Amino acid sequence: KVTGLIDRLNDGLDTLADAIVKTKAITSIEKKADAYKDKVVPAMAEVRAVSDELETLVDAEMWPLPTYAQMLFVR
Q: Which pTM value belongs to this model?
């Protein structure tokens, strides 16, 4: 399951990076805003969803980033 999620995460990161590059190239502010709304934000949401699921499966000692709980309730 973790391997499949990592594959999905890598695909999502590629999609996000591609969407950002394409959106940055848009010169019209209105079209750029639409591209962020229609392409970048959904790609970010996919990366977030997969990351959240991975965070529940990977042991906290191996997780390289702070969890949401750690960020919300700093100790």
A: 0.81
Backbone angles phi, psi at 58, to 5 degrees: -90, 135
Report the C-alpha gap between 65 and 16 in whole angstroms: 20
Task: Specify the residue for token string 């695909």.
Answer: 11
33-70 burial string, b = 16+ CB within 10 Å, else e? Answer: eebbeebbeebbebbeebeeebeeeeeeeeeeeeeeee
CB contact at 8 A, 43 and 12? yes
Query: Taking the mean position of all CA atoms in its chain, how far away is CA 68?
Result: 14
Which tens digit of pLDDT belongs to each residue from 16-70?
999 999 999 999 999 999 999 999 999 999 999 999 899 889 887 887 888 777 8
